[in-house]
Design brief:
This protein is mostly helical and 62 residues long. The chain is 40% helix and 0% strand. The protein is flat and about 45 Å long. It is built from three helices and no strands. The protein has helices at 2-6, 16-22, 43-55. The longest helix has 13 residues, at 43-55. The mean pLDDT is 84. The protein has one domain (11-55).
Length: 62
């Protein structure tokens, strides 16, 4: 991990536009709380996917 960090091969950010334009691979990690019926609440996942689609200009691995 130190080598990866030194080479800036792995970065974390909250600025979606910047990272989507810069990255070759996007790793998304968001909370998926349970709804009242016990199913996962995917609203945040959908919001992030829409945000990625808004800024993505080329093919990316997600």
């Amino acid at each position: 991990m130190r080598n990866v960090a030194k080479k800036e091969l792995l970065q974390f950010a909250t600025n979606a536009e910047y990272m989507i334009l810069k990255a070759d691979v996007l790793l998304v990690s968001v909370g998926t709380p349970c709804r009242e019926d016990g199913q996962a609440d995917l609203q945040i996942v959908v919001k992030v996917a829409n945000n990625i689609g808004k800024y993505m200009q080329n093919t990316r691995l997600l």
